[in-house]
Amino acid sequence: MAPEYAMLGELTEKSDVYSFGIVLFEVLFGRRQYDSTLPKKKQYLFDWAMESLSQGTIYHAIDPYLKGRIAPECLNKYLEIASSCVHFMGNGRPAMGEVEVTLELALELQERADSEMGRIYLSGEFMYEEALFSAFIRNFAGLDSHNYSEFDSDLSDSDSNNVEN
């Protein structure tokens, strides 16, 4: 749930962008926004995603199906747009058109990387190595300009009543 809706009851186009950002993280992590069966620190996807990003452990947290299949450049672009969508301030979030364009770019990066890997591994079977992700995630600047801490604990408390976005 977007911070402005949780605090003020206001819904805007940027609220939709926030919700879409949460969906992007659900896809990446392969789980729902809230899961009461997980340890407390991992129950809220948003909190876990932000912690994983800030600690540089996002590769270990993503859906196991995606590990080795997503190109580092694609993951970096995907994280960039997903994290910008969940910016605390609505005016800090991109327009939905920008989200679409950036996701298309992420897809192009994936296709280009797959094509290059296909030339190296003629059998067509390849996996991106975990070591490649470290440099990309270390260089990920998506959190530098965002302020999540203002809303972090409030979301976890208030959102328990509305576990669907």
Describe the protein's topology.
Blueprint: H1 3-8, H2 13-29, H3 40-43, H4 45-55, H5 58-61, H6 72-85, H7 96-120, H8 130-138, H9 149-158
Helix pairs in contact: 2-6, 6-7
Please explain how this structure is put together.
With 165 residues, the chain is mostly helical. It has a single domain (3-161), classed as Transferase(Phosphotransferase), domain 1 (Orthogonal Bundle), CATH 1.10.510. Helices cover 61% and strands 0% of the residues. The longest helix is centred in the middle third of the chain and has 25 residues, at 96-120. The protein is globular, with a radius of gyration of 16 Å. It starts with a helix and ends in a 7-residue tail after the last helix. Residues 141-165 have low confidence and may be disordered. Residues 1-107 form the Protein kinase domain. One of its GO terms (cellular component) is plasma membrane. It comes from Gossypium darwinii. One of its GO terms (molecular function) is ATP binding.
